[in-house]
Specification:
By secondary structure, this protein is an alpha/beta fold. It has 2 domains: about 260 residues, Aldehyde Dehydrogenase, Chain A, domain 1 (3-Layer(aba) Sandwich); about 190 residues, Aldehyde Dehydrogenase, Chain A, domain 2 (3-Layer(aba) Sandwich), CATH 3.40.309. Helix content is about 35%, strand content about 25%. It is built from 13 helices and 22 strands. α2 runs antiparallel to α4, α2 packs across α6 and α9 packs parallel to α10. The protein is globular. The N and C termini lie far apart (about 70 Å). It binds nicotinamide-adenine-dinucleotide. Nicotinamide-adenine-dinucleotide binds next to α7 and α8.
């Protein structure tokens, strides 16, 4: 049911002299032992990635795409096995885990297509001269993926690197290693040359501190918290190494007066609690026009309170535990701080049970601006719902955090939408839906939410460099 946990270096699986425990967050039981990469493993991974880059960057885009598509097909075929691993290690309900596997495969399929569309450009030049712009793979990528989507987060990074012709050393999350291990297996079975994809685990700070300063590493791709992203960007800057940073979010939802409050609130509660709220695009700060605030708040609270919380592998469960023992104290502190400053806890607000890292679906109403949760991303099942008197006030509140990843709005007024497109400071704005991205759309943030984009036709840009070739010929 749960795979054997190993490092994948130079096309081979290996154990290590040290290991660590991987725990089921719903039961707190051990799922497996995860090898901790030693310095010698990282050296081997670097050597393998350098060799892998030489092979893969010279492999034709079509052949690269074919390999990626074969691997994606294997992931689809293995959907149930992968989904069960994700449910066990992350605590995500099985139905959501199955969707994540498909989304991960879609990321690969999209980028495989893009591999064949990394077009260059011809620039008009004087007779006897040719100006040509080439896009070339940047080199070895050091990537770091977080635990909240064990399959689709590693997929984003591996897909971008492999489609571009780069090799990659991925340090996936130690809490949820199985998703990345299933991906590596699929690529091994699909015939990816050794060294193109390498997978390591261990102490995150030690691994990033060792890999990032290496000359051969030309891109650092990270998804995680802003504080860690800032640290890795500083490390990378020592060597002028490029970075792709997909960091935190604290998504606002502007609910205008022309919205059906019951429909939007029901949808909002369901989306908020997806993956126990541990999503960087999770809708969290709801700014609701005062004329529909009471109805919206009551409907949202009732739907959140009715959520079926339990073991993610059980039928009918809508929300599992949070992913690790770090989340519950953080969430508890944020709720207590908001309560002390005058917010109303409409439902939830505390740990659920005494086994597993469960936190109750929580709704906070009328939260004052000085409450920590108005600035800090909760990354858990907590929603803030505040009334606003005007669109001006809502936009000002939406932009009042350092983050700018996803933002949402409910309205059919074209003038409101026009203003929000211009004024809401986010990388992804969604109107009348709480979905933020698809494989074919560019995803990423502004402000402290990072820079660079994953997905869309922009998705390979960070993995490639631009080379201008000036070819001068004597015309006889
Ligand atoms: P954290 O800040 O300790 O770690 C965040 C991620 O970075 C983890 O995956 C971790 O393994 C990795 N990491 C930590 N230190 C590192 C280092 N020195 N080098 C390389 N990688 C390192 O926080 P956490 O408790 O794991 O997660 C909670 C916070 O992280 C949340 O509040 C949220 O803001 C953020 N987060 C964001 C995303 C996202 O999708 N953007 C995903 C997971 C976590």
């Amino acid at each position: 049911m749960y795979p054997e946990l190993k490092l994948f270096i130079g096309g081979e699986w290996r154990k290590s002299t040290r290991d660590m425990s991987v725990v089921n967050p719903a039961t707190e039981e051990e799922l497996g032992r995860l090898p901790v990469a030693a310095k010698s493993d990282l050296d081997d991974a670097l050597e393998a990635a350098e060799k892998g880059f030489r092979i893969w960057s010279r492999t034709s885009p079509r052949e690269r795409a074919d390999t990626i598509l074969r691997a994606a097909k294997l992931m689809r075929d293995r959907q149930e096995e992968i989904a069960r691993s994700i449910a066990l290690e992350l605590g995500k309900p099985l139905a959501q885990a199955r969707l994540e596997v498909i989304r991960g495969a879609e990321f690969f399929e999209w980028d495989a297509g893009e591999a064949m569309r990394t077009y260059g450009r011809i620039i008009p030049a004087a007779r006897g001269h040719k100006f040509a712009v080439h896009h070339q793979p940047i080199g070895v990528v050091a990537a770091f993926s977080p635990w909240n989507f064990p399959m689709s987060q590693p997929a984003r990074k591996i897909a971008g690197a492999l489609a571009s012709g780069c090799s990659i050393i991925l340090k996936a999350a130690e809490e949820t290693p199985a998703g990345a291990i299933h991906i590596a297996r699929a690529f091994q079975d699909a015939g990816l040359p050794p060294g193109v994809l390498n997978l390591v685990f261990g102490n995150p700070a030690e691994i990033s501190g060792y890999l990032i300063p290496q000359d051969m590493v030309r891109l650092v791709a990270f998804t995680g918290s802003t504080v860690v992203g800032r640290h890795l960007t500083t490390l990378a800057s020592e060597n002028m190494t490029s970075v792709l940073m997909e960091l935190g979010g604290h998504a606002p939802v502007i609910v205008c007066e022309d919205t059906d409050p019951q429909e939007a609130a029901t949808f909002g509660a369901i989306r908020k609690l997806r993956n126990s709220g541990q999503v960087c695009t999770s809708p969290t700060r709801f700014f609701v026009h005062e004329s529909i605030f009471d109805e919206f708040a009551a409907t949202f609270t009732a739907r959140a309170a009715a959520t079926i919380v339990g073991n993610p592998v059980d039928d009918g469960v809508e929300m599992g535990p949070t992913a690790n023992d770090r989340r519950v104290p953080v969430l508890t502190d944020l709720v207590e701080d908001a309560r002390a400053k005058g917010a109303k806890v409409a439902t939830g607000g505390a740990r659920e049970g005494n086994k597993g890292f469960f936190f109750q679906p929580t709704v906070l109403l009328n939260v004052p601006e000085d409450a920590r949760i108005m600035q800090e991303e909760p990354f858990g099942p907590i929603a803030v719902i505040n009334p606003v008197a005007s669109l001006d006030a809502a936009i000002s509140q939406a932009n009042s955090v350092p983050y700018g990843l996803a933002g949402y709005a409910f309205t059919n007024r074209a003038d409101y939408i026009d203003r929000m497109i211009d004024e809401v400071e986010v990388g992804n704005l969604s109107i009348n839906t709480l979905e933020a991205s698809m494989p074919e759309t560019p995803f990423g943030g502004v402000k402290s939410s990072g820079y660079g984009r994953e997905g869309g036709s922009e998705g390979l840009d960070n993995y490639m460099t631009v080379k201008h070739v000036w070819h001068s010929v004597k015309i006889s």
